[in-house]
Amino acid sequence: MAITVIVHGDRPSPDPAGRSITFDTPRVVIGRGANCDVRLPDPSVSLRHLTIRQKGRSFVVVDESSTNGTLLGRTRLSPGAPEAMGEHALLRIGRYVLELRVENSTATPQPAAVAKQIAVGLVIEQLLEEGEDGRPRVFVEAGPDEGADLFLAPGERATIGRSKEATLALTDADASRRHVEVVWRGDAIYARDLGSKSGSALGDRVLGSADAIWRAGEVLRVGETEIACSFTAPDALGEIERAPDERVPVAAIDMAAFMPEPEPEPEEEAEGVSEALADDGTAEDVAAEEAEPEIEEPRRRGATWGVTDIAVLLLALGVFSLSAVGYVVLL
User: Fold this and answer.
1) pTM of this structure
2) pLDDT in tens, 124-167
3) Which class does domain 137-230 fall in?
4) Regarding the domain delimited by 2-130, which CATH topology (the fold level of the hierarchy) does it fall under?
5) Domain ranges within the chain, ordered by starting residue
6) pLDDT for 9
7) Which three-class secondary structure string do you get for the chain?
């Protein structure tokens, strides 16, 4: 059995796939430290906060005497005491909520690199909340397109060249249509030449076709264009990992937000409800007709004299009287 760890904030992550790692190892260490299997870059998380241990086909979680403690669902863990977890569990670790899923699935390739990528992404989000953009940025420092730039997305291979379809399009006549490719992985930016006619240089190195780390301060030369990069999130991550633990109150987990109750199943039809066949042979549901009581018409009783009947009778008597008077006069 494998266990998948999904990193959330106080609310469910909008990109759970990009925040998840699947392990098939007997132990998973979670904390703020660089050597942890799942890295949570926040001072509210201890360097080695918690471990997940496999016992047969099930798992237990153990709080490693962390500063702020751990919640498993609504239960606060006792330091050092293993606590059994189900196939789907939630952990509160500092300012993060972790979703744990025990399932038959394939382990994530290169989990350490993925853990680093997730940690850097979390730091970028923190910096954005503080008004600083920590995303990896590539920008033209000198040349015909000075000032042009692009921000890299995780795993995206961006192209630089004279083509209009290039991620960073140049007007430099000495640049090839697809000159250089750059990518962000983990805490570094990498670059490689795409077989350009005039070649590329990265700092004092000739750039080849294999990915090369683009170190801070190095200039990438493409034709007559000089390109630089900036990436502040890795330095911020290092500062967070070296910082002391911060004591914070352990907030309860909004269970309904992460584990909503399943929708109720539709009720079964009541016994005795049948289907009738229409003239064309199709089935019609007659449950509504059977459920509605028939409306009985009121029964007619013996005749009674109403106002209209009396008025008609009086009118007839009046006509008869006038006729009688006229007959007497004629005599």
Assistant:
1) 0.75
2) 999 999 999 999 999 999 999 999 999 999 889 999 999 999 99
3) mainly beta
4) Tumour Suppressor Smad4 (2.60.200)
5) 2-130, 137-230
6) 92
7) CEEEEEEECCCCCCCHHHHEEEECCCEEEEECCCCCCEECCCCCCCCCCEEEEEECCEEEEEECCCCCCEEECCEECCCCCCEEECCEEEEEECCEEEEEEEECCCCCCCHHHHHHHHHHHHHHHHHHHCCCCCCCEEEEEECCCCCCEEECCECCEEEEECCCCCCEECCCCCCCCCCEEEEEECCEEEEEECCCCCCEEECCEECCCCCEECCCCCCEEECCEEEEEECCHHHHHHHHHHCCCCCCCCCCCCHHHHCCCCCCCCCCCCCCCCEEECCCCCEEECHHHHHCCCCCCCCCCCCCCCHHHHHHHHHHHHHHHHHHHHHHHHC
